[in-house]
Every structure is written in C-alpha cells, then in structure tokens.
Design goal:
The complex is a heterodimer.
Chain A (H helix, E strand, L loop, with lengths): L2 H32 L5 H10 L9 H24 L15 H12 L9 H4 L2 H31 L9 H27 L9 E4 L5 E4 L4 H10 L20 H25 L3 H28 L3 H6 L11 H14 L14 H12 L10 H21 L4 E2 L2 E2 L2 H27 L1 H4 L6 H16 L14 H31 L15 H31 L2
Antiparallel strand pairs in A: 1-2, 3-4
Helix pairs in contact in A: 1-9, 1-12, 3-4, 3-6, 3-18, 4-18, 6-7, 6-8, 6-14, 6-18, 7-8, 7-9, 8-9, 9-10, 9-12, 10-12, 10-13, 10-19, 12-13, 13-17, 13-19, 14-15, 14-19, 15-17, 15-18, 17-18, 17-19
Chain B lengths: L5 H35 L1 H4 L3 E3 L5 E4 L67 H16 L16 E5 L7 E8 L8 E2 L2 E6 L9 E4 L23 E2 L1 H15 L3 H10 L1 E2 L10 E3 H10 L1
Parallel strand pairs in B: 4-6
Antiparallel strand pairs in B: 1-2, 3-4, 3-7, 5-6, 8-10, 9-10
Helix pairs in contact in B: 4-5
Classes of the chains: A mainly alpha, B alpha+beta.
C-alpha cells in the first residue's frame, strides 16, 4: 500500500469514528448539561465548595465566577511551580523562574498550553500531575461551560438565567472528561506510554554509553491533554516523544481524542435548541473547513516542496518514522484546527506552504471544530456574523434560531472576532520592531518572521503549538505571549457570555417568509465563505511576508 | 460566610473548587490510572525496558540510541539510528527536534582564527541543507554507496549560489557554503565564473539560488533527517536494507540472515494502514548480538 493510500485510509477511519461517536456522545453531553439530578459525588463537591447547585446565575455572575476560578487557578499554578522544590515528587528540580512560571500558569489555565519550558528538565511530577494536568481538565470544562451557556442563551426565552458555572464546571470535569480520560489513559499505556512516578535512571547502552530513562505519570496526562484540546506535553517533544505517543495506533487514538468532543458538541447544541438540523449545519461547516485543511496539508507535505525537502526526498525532518509523513500531517491539521497544540512532528520544519496551513487553521479562530467548547462558541459567533451579513444583503433585521441579531448582539460578535487579530498583529509587529526580540529567531529570512507570527497566532488563539525554533523563554516573550493568551481567552469569553445574556432575555420571533433558514446547505456554504473571507482579509498580508514569500519562488 | 462581600465569597468558592478538583483530578485520578497500569501493563508502564543476553537492562524498546563509539563514530557492527537533535543524540533529558526550516540552506562559515565571546573558536553555523548533505555523504561512505543528493555538492555541503546583483544580469557569483580554497561545485553560472566563499564576508545582498544538480539520492530520507523527538527508535525499511550488507560483513553473517532479522524486527502499519513500516534499531541490534 502506498503512503498516500494509507494516509487517506487513516483520515477516513478517523471520520468514521467521529460519525459514530457524534450522536451518542452529543446526546450524552446534552443529558449531562440539561439534567436536573446531581450525582452523589457532585453533591459532596458542591457542599465542599459552598455553592447552591440549583441557584441559576445571570450572565454577569456566571462570568465573574468563571473569572474568579481562572484567577485563583493562575495564582495556584504559579505558586506550585515556584515552590516545587519544597514539595514532594519534584525530582530535585529547582523552582521554575518567575517569568516562565507566569507564562506557564496563564498558558495552562487558558487552555493554550504554550510551553516556554522543557518538561523533562523543568517540571517535577507533582507540578505536572497536580498542577498542569488538573488545568487540562478544568480549562477544558470551562470552555465547554461557556459554550453551553451561549447555547442556553439561544434556547431560553425571557430570562436572565444562564445556568450555574460551578455545576457546569463540575459536571463537565467529572461526568464527561474524567471517565473518557480514565479508559483512554489505560489504552495508551497498553500501547506503550509510561505511567509511574520514577525519577530518571541511567542504563548502559549497547555501545557502552549512558542513557537516562525518564518516567512520570505520562499516560494519565497525555489523554486529557488531547481530549481537553490542551496540548502541553509532559516532555519537551510532546506527542513526538515515544513515551507520549508510542506506536502508530496511539497516534490515531490521540487524534481521535482531540476531535471527539469538539465534533460531538454541535449535536448537543442541536438537542438543546430543539432542532437537530441546526446542529448538523454547524457540524457541516466544521467538517467542510476541516476536510479542506487536512487534504491540503497532507498533500503539501507528501509533495515535499522546497529546497531541503527536495534534497531529502521526503519531508521527514522533524517527523517520526513510525508515524510517517501523512499521519503526521493529519495530526498537525487536527491540533491546529482545534485549540490543542500538541504536536507529533515539528511544524517549524514543515514545507513552507504546509506550515502556512497550520497557521491558517489557527487564524480561522479554531472553529473547525475548534477547542472543546471554544470551537462551538466561536462557530456560533461566526454564524451570528453570517446572518448579519445575509441580513444586510436583503435589508432585513437578521435572526438566528428565532433570536433577533440587533445592534448589541452584532457589536458583541464583532468585538469577539476582533480580539485575536488585534493581539496577533500588534504582538508580531512589536516583536519584529525590536532587534532584541528578532534575535530569538532560529531561522533567518521569511521563516524567522513565520516563527514570530506563529507564536503570536498560537498564543492569542490559545493553541499552544509553535514553530519551535523561536527562543521564547525570555522575560519579554513570556510576558507578551502570556498577555496574549490571557486576553485572547477571557475577552472573547466575556463577550460570548454577554451575548448569551442578551439573547436569553429576548422572546423568540416567529419565523416568517423572510427568515433565512439556517439549517440548509446554502447557510453552511455562507458560513464557510464568511469565515474564509474574514480570515483571509485579516491575515493574508502577514502570511505573504512569511510562508508565502518562502514557499512561492 | 454570607456576611462577606460577594467578590470575596466568589473567590473563596473558586479556591475551594480548585482544591477539591485538584484532589480528584490531580490526585485520585492519576493514582488510580497508575495502579491499574502497573497491575495490567507493568512492562509498558515502566518504559518497555529491554535486556541484553546477560540480562542487563540496556534501554527502552521505544527509545532510540546512539550506536557510536566514544568519538561519535558509527560502530560498524551495529545498525545506525537516525540523526538526532536531542542533546548529543538520543538524550532523554534534552529531547528536541532541529526546528530548522525548509529553506535553511545558507551556512555561516567559521572564520579561521576568530573566537566567540567566551573565547572559543568560531564554529559557524551549518544550515539544515548542509547537515543533510554531509550526513548523506557520510552514510554513503559508511555503506559503500553514493552519498550524492539533489542540492548537495560532492564535498557534502548545500549547493547554493549567491548571485550579485540580486536583480538583473549576474556580475558576480559565489558558492555560498564552500569556503575558500574549495573548488566551487559549478565552474560557471550564466557565463559568470563561480567563486568560493570567503568566511566572514557578508553575502546577504545577493540572490539565493539553490542548484538541484543531476544527482539522485540513494541514501533514504530518514537517514539524513533528524526526527521530531530526537529519540526515534526506528529507521525505514529502506535504510535498514542499505545497512544490511555492511553489518553482515562486519559480523561474518550471510546478508540473508541479517535481512531475516530486519523483517523480524519490523513493525508493519497497525491494522494495515496506520503509520509507516518501521524497523526497531535497538531490538534489531540486540537480536544480532544474541546471534
């Protein structure tokens, strides 16, 4: 079988998996977020937290709870890293330096998992397990909570209530992420991932050299890193590391884990708004964009354009033999189309145009299918913008799911959309304007620019993958990228929750002859078009200076 | 609690929530997974360690090694792993990819006699292309085949010209990666004599022209590229085949016997379509040592 055929089958098998899981998982999540009953363990948790689970929150209270939880999380994670040498299981690692600790704390709480440190030489097992991996769960649950709150905004009428943040947080963590993670972690161990608390120990190699074999609770963290679309590797080389991704089928499983929740959430959305077709339409938009992207990226990598890939004869720099080019490209597409940022191969060494696709995926706003929760709310905002654009064309007040998209709604949606381009472009401009920051580039010429553009794109969109050549563990980059991650996460969330609040207050307008149907292929095509055009207009000039200049001679 | 301002109550609830969830997700969950993994998959959970004939642990079946001597030269009786960017090669405490881009083709040539800020001699910086070319040449020499590749010179650096002026009719052409007194890989470029490069001279203003040349590569791609992890335990079947005659000769074995061991230590695609066929180098070398 040729590598291309195998690569196509690999993608088809993932699609089949997502089709099979879409309904049951989507329905399950619908029941989790809509059910009135609390599990016994959940009641205990609510009592310990000191909240009343049946008290509903207005959008502003929901947002304040979320922000309080995230702020406390950042402080806690910062402190844990700074004090790791005083605690157990630190493996003798020194306290993490202040700017790296700040960057890492923000990074994991915002579901970005950008890493300006190298796992095996910076973080002890306790920080990994009780700090970073916990945020892998809860930052994902926060993302899902926001998406569910927005969907409630569409589904509910004449109310101020959007649900209870603490309930959504706990249910997402305990009922959705935890059980899948437990089963998945054991599957990964069966494939060869390590799961122990050992410190590095030396063995004598065949030729008499010494090799330190590292350990750690890797599998338990690896699965939630993918499932929660987090992406922060236990080790520096992330999912390329054999102890994080041992064989070709663990690679498949990790991609599947990345995509399974984001692709099932539109079903949950369809159920909650009482019209499954709306969910299918959103799924169709996500799938269309994802398929175009994965097809382009895989074929560009297999075609190995560019001087070095032509010299080597296959784009194998930065890729593992057991995965091969095609499956590595599929992973790269999945990780950048969602907000994951885990990598099983190194994007910096991709072909110029292949690398551009990974960047473009993130620039789409990570909506195809996007991060857990973040993808759905991002896509719904794009749908709102699309009905607005369509409304302008025919001169009618736009509606979506029976809710009027008036001035307040479209302002919130537009501000949501504008946050990341502002962060990406100003951040990149500042870095490029300073000789000191330019010195962080490993590569020269357009590729060096791509490294910086990638860094700010990844941080602002909460992805976390990198063109890894850029030296980012400097105070400037740690602070700047940390700010991008925080603003790129929490500003959009506040806008989304405000939008949800304003939608929930409305009473639905009955559909009329002039209402744009939002479940037909026509609407799917329009959302795809609006997304591509908005992103292309925003970022094409920047891409032209980097990967396009490099890839097109 | 009810008397406190609501923002303090909110943050207290947040802190408690974080602590409770840390206990469950950061304590109980990893411990439960570890317990189940240690019981059910003990070997895997502890790193898939492998032993030699004497029963000593010599590494992990999932992690590659250097099969080189103290000077970094390949030990000829062993199959060689891929190039690695992890520390000095296959260092699990410093895993890394090269992160060099597809157009990283211009070397910074070391200036003889110059020193860096720490007083060490200037080593310059070899581009990814030159690294590929020199690895290809070295592998060719080791296996007794041609190490030639597209975009590579015969002396194993990137075949790249700097043409001046950048736009218009060439007036001066330099083979950018070949330090004088090397003979440029091309005598003439569009009627202009090609010069060798003077280390330290700034050629940035020129147009960069990589020259493909007629060569076809014999040495496979994985033999000249660094992996993503720097720990790749595998090589391609093609690279193993290339090394088989040398290993057979060094060990006094029939090539067919070595080939049989290659096949035994090759993992095919999972379910027939996942990944690529891959030869586990450590397992293969262990099998050879066992005889």
């Amino acid at each position: 079988m040729s590598p291309t055929t195998a690569g196509i089958l690999f993608i088809l098998s993932l699609i089949a998996f997502l089709v099979l899981t879409h309904r049951p998982l989507g329905d399950y999540m619908y029941r989790v977020y809509s059910g009135a009953r609390h599990l016994g363990i959940e009641r205990v948790i609510y009592r310990l937290i000191g909240v009343r689970p049946d008290a509903e929150q207005r959008w502003s209270v929901y947002a304040r709870s979320l922000l309080a939880f995230s702020a406390i999380s950042i402080l806690f994670l910062y402190g844990l890293q700074r004090l790791q040498d005083k605690l157990f299981l630190s493996l003798g690692m020194a306290p993490v330096t202040d700017h790296v600790a700040w960057n890492t704390a923000v990074s994991f709480v915002t579901n970005t998992n950008w890493q300006s440190y190298s796992g095996e030489s910076t973080m002890g097992h306790l920080v990994q397990m009780a700090g970073l991996a916990v945020q892998n769960f809860v930052s994902a649950a926060v993302g899902m909570a926001v998406a569910i709150a927005l969907v409630r905004g569409f589904a509910r009428r004449r109310t101020e209530e959007l649900g209870n943040f603490w309930v959504d947080l706990v249910r997402g963590s305990v009922r959705i992420l935890l059980p899948i993670a437990f089963v998945g972690a054991l599957a990964l161990v069966a494939g060869g991932l390590v799961q122990n608390f050992a410190a590095p120990h030396d063995v004598t190699t065949l030729t008499g050299g010494t090799q330190a074999i590292t350990g750690g609770p890797v599998a338990s963290q690896e699965i939630i890193k993918e499932l929660g679309t987090n992406g922060g590797g236990f080790y520096n080389t992330n999912s390329a590391h054999p102890f994080e991704n041992a064989v070709s089928w663990t690679n498949w499983l990790e991609i599947a884990a990345i995509l399974v929740i984001p692709f099932a959430l539109p079903r949950t959305f369809g159920r909650m708004v009482g019209d499954r077709r709306q969910g299918y339409a959103i799924t169709a938009v996500m799938a269309t964009l994802a398929l175009i992207s994965v097809a382009l990226l895989t074929s560009l990598e297999l075609a190995h354009g560019g001087t070095v890939p032509q010299a080597t004869g296959a784009a194998m720099e930065g890729k593992e033999v057991r995965f091969g080019v095609a499956d590595s490209a599929a992973f790269a597409a999945a990780t950048t189309l969602t907000s994951t940022g885990a990598v099983d191969s190194f994007h910096d060494s991709y072909t110029a145009l292949g690398g551009m696709i990974t960047m473009f995926n993130m620039m789409l706003g990570e909506v195809a299918p996007g991060g857990v929760g973040a993808g759905l709310y991002g896509m719904l905002v794009l749908a709102v913008i699309t009905v607005f654009v369509a409304g302008l064309m025919v001169g009618r007040t736009p509606e979506y799911l029976g809710k009027k998209i008036g001035a307040r709604e479209i302002k919130l949606a537009s501000m949501y959309f504008l946050v990341t381009p502002v962060l990406v472009l100003t951040g990149t401009a500042f870095a490029m304007g300073s000789p000191e920051q330019r010195a962080s580039m490993l590569n020269t010429g357009p590729h060096g620019f791509s490294e910086v553009l990638y860094a700010f794109t990844s941080a602002s969109n909460n992805n976390g993958s990198a063109f890894g050549g850029l030296t980012v563990n400097t105070p400037w980059y740690d602070v700047a990228l940390g700010l991008c991650m925080a603003l790129g996460r929490f500003l959009p969330i506040v806008f989304v929750l405000a939008l949800a609040g304003s939608l929930a207050r409305q009473s639905p307008v009955p559909a009329s002859a002039g209402t744009l149907p939002t479940h037909r292929p026509q609407f799917v095509g329009m959302v795809v078009g609006v997304t591509l055009i908005l992103v292309a207009l925003t970022f094409l000039p920047a891409l032209a200076l980097g990967p396009l200049a490099e890839g097109i001679h | 609690m009810e008397r406190m301002p609501s923002w303090i109550r909110q943050h207290l609830a947040a802190l408690r929530a974080l602590l409770v969830l840390t206990l469950i997700l950061g304590g109980l969950y990893p411990l439960a997974v570890t317990a189940a993994a240690q019981l059910g998959f003990n070997g895997e959970a502890n790193g898939s360690l492998v032993e030699n004939a004497a029963g000593e642990k010599v590494g992990s079946a999932l992690v590659g090694q250097n099969f080189t001597d103290k000077d970094g030269k390949p030990v000829r009786k062993y199959f060689q792993s891929r190039p690695s960017a992890a520390g000095d090669g296959y260092d699990m405490l410093a895993t890394s990819a090269s992160n060099l881009g597809p157009e990283d083709i211009l070397d910074v040539l070391p200036v003889p006699g110059a020193t860096n800020t720490e007083g060490e001699p200037d080593t310059g910086k070899r581009s990814l292309l030159t690294q590929v070319c020199s690895r290809s040449r070295a592998a060719g020499e080791l296996e007794g085949v041609s190490g030639a590749r597209p975009y590579c010179t015969a002396d194993g650096v990137g075949a790249v010209l700097k043409v001046f002026p950048a736009v218009g009719v060439p007036a001066r052409v330099v083979s950018a990666n070949q330090a004088c007194p090397a003979t440029p890989f091309l005598a003439e470029y569009r009627g202009v004599r090609v010069e060798c490069a003077t280390p330290g001279e700034d050629y940035a203003a020129g147009r960069t022209v990589p020259v493909r040349g007629p060569a076809k590569a014999v040495v496979p791609a994985d033999a000249v590229t660094a992996s993503g992890s720097g720990l790749d335990p595998h090589i391609s079947v093609a690279y193993a085949e290339l090394q088989a005659p040398r290993v057979a000769r060094e060990r006094g074995l029939a090539v067919a016997e070595v080939r049989r061991l290659i096949t035994e230590n090759t993992a095919g695609r999972a379910l027939g379509f996942m990944g690529e066929p891959a030869v586990n180098v450590l397992r293969l070398n262990l099998a050879l040592d066992r005889g």
